[in-house]
Amino acid sequence: MDSPQAIKLAIDSGNMITMAYLDDLTDEQMMHRPHPQCNHIKCQLGHLISSEHQIINGIAPESMPALPDGFAEKYTKETSQSDDAAAFDSKEELLRVYQEQRAATLAALEQQSADDLDKPAPEHMQSFVPTAGAAFSLIGGHLLMHAGQWAVIRRQLGKPPLF
């Protein structure tokens, strides 16, 4: 297995867990907060989508499709405090945009050689991803970080553990 294949495996693992946690949740349940100071799933998923778009475009410019107009602005630190479901996209729309961005991420990863993955990330990203490979690797780990909160939300909603 080469580096791009290993990174894809990590992204795919994060994706599998994420999609399983979201599969049986309703739009209303995705607005549940595990704690008053924690973000609901819609905000977190929008953040994940926007982050993936920004990170991968930083590594592979113009490789990602444009986000819908106003999408990134809906999922910021400032908007995360809102409990107004109308301020966020539906689960269906979030998953549509997620899948679109994910397909582009994987296509961009396929274009990377091992040498490409060793190249430095753009300077503004180097504090959290020093190389292109680290940027691609972050995508799967970032999903899992947030999915840990989703496991708690699922239990609070009476859903069975999945993993």
What does this structure look like?
The protein is an all-alpha fold. The protein has one domain: Four Helix Bundle (Hemerythrin (Met), subunit A). It contains six helices and no strands. The chain has helices spanning 3-23, 41-59, 71-74, 91-110, 114-117, 132-156. Helix 2 packs parallel to helix 4 and helix 2 (41-59) packs antiparallel against helix 6. The longest helix is centred in the C-terminal third of the chain and has 25 residues, at 132-156. The radius of gyration is 16 Å and the shape is globular. The two termini are 26 Å apart.
Major sheet size, sense and barrel closure? none
Question: CATH architecture, please?
Answer: Up-down Bundle
Number of helices: 6
Spatial gap, N to C terminus: 26 Å
How many domains comprise the coordinates? 1
Would you list the SSEs in sequence order as H and E?
HHHHHH
CATH class: Mainly Alpha
CATH topology, anyone?
Answer: Four Helix Bundle (Hemerythrin (Met), subunit A)
Uncertain stretches of 5 or more adjacent residues: none
How large a portion of the residues is in β-strands, by DSSP E?
under 5%
Number of strands: 0
Radius of gyration: 16 Å
Overall outline: globular
What's the pLDDT, averaged over the residues? 96
Helix content: 55-70%
Class from helix and strand fractions: mainly alpha
Name given to the CATH homologous superfamily: dinb family like domain
